[in-house]
Request: fold
Amino acid sequence: MPPDWRSRLTDPVSAAPAGFKSLVSPVYRGSTTLFTSAARAEDHWDQERIAYSYGLYGTPTTFELSARIARLEGGTHCFITPGGQAAMALISLTFSRAAGHVLLPDNVYGPSRDIAQLLLSRLGVEAEFYDPLIGSDIARLFRANTQLVWCESPGSVTMEVADVPAIAAAARGAGIITALDNTYAAGVLFDAFAHGVDVTTQALTKYVGGHSDVLLGSVTVKDARLYQAVGDTHSLLGMNASPDDCSLALRGLKTLAVRLDKLQDSALQVATWLSKQPQVERVLHPALPSCPGHETWKRDFTGSTSVFSVVFKPGIGREPLLQFVDALQIFKIGYSWGGVTSLVMPFLELKRRHRQYAGSVVRFNIGLESAAELIDDLDAALGRNLR
Ligand SMILES: *Cc1c(COP(=O)(O)O)cnc(C)c1O
Reply:
């Protein structure tokens, strides 16, 4: 201990208390991490080269989360990002170059579309949007400068399930990287690497976090060269994730299995009930035959989750639909999904180039409330506003 109290206040010596063992991973914070000698000091993100060199690249808490996600998805390495959107940006900036061409599905998560159109375009990368049900015909869109094929399945809002194995095989044959946004499947209900995908991402904000109280993303790979490529860009962009947030995601992982089981069950009950209502044209739930790509879901997925959309009858106008949404009591109006609370969001101006529905689309996220009460809530709001 230094003799002066001022020096004692800031004395950095810290050690895990001997004899204390809990079931919980500690939250390790730290910007500076200490070296045992000057000769050993080195600043590099690659944990395989130097375990800890600077807190920006991760602390033991961050690395525990990334290791668990990598293992869960069957990858070898994972990077944690400050949110799902940051993960999309990380992949786009790692795998595209000026004068290049990237392919994205027409139903890609809206802000991912914005990355391509507003950010990549400024860097001289051309984005082209394909029909999510294109399958192996994607090869017809490949050009000499195509660098990345993006997949998201089921896609956002319209929920088409893509033939990712066929798309990935075509891309591999042409030497093009395939990236998959595997958020819907929580990284576990669709085995991306076994189906030929090179890079996966998840908004951990959704099912892994699971309680609407944290924003995080992940990028997972299964190849040493891709690990180096993503790691370089991750550190260049300074994509730090807070260890506190990572500890919430670690807690979320412990209950992921029971939450997914319950959410699947309730969502199917509610979606099936909705499919029988006279105001409903079509339910876009991957586990129901009315969802485009349902057969592919049956072939490739081991379950469905909490989010689906409803196409209402074309005659139902904007005002009554908004009144219906406002009349819901248990369902709350808000973006995002995957938490414990049921949510609803109208997408009345939705434009889809390949599968435009005549009726309006409303997205539902089922939470952990009683499914019977959710159905009563929908029944009451439909009856009052959309007869
Ligand atoms: C929510 C979401 C994201 C973005 O995640 P954030 O953590 O909210 O930035 C990305 N992809 C999909 C499919 C999503 O639903």
About this structure: The mean pLDDT is 96. DSSP finds eleven helices and twelve strands in the chain. The longest strand covers residues 146-152.
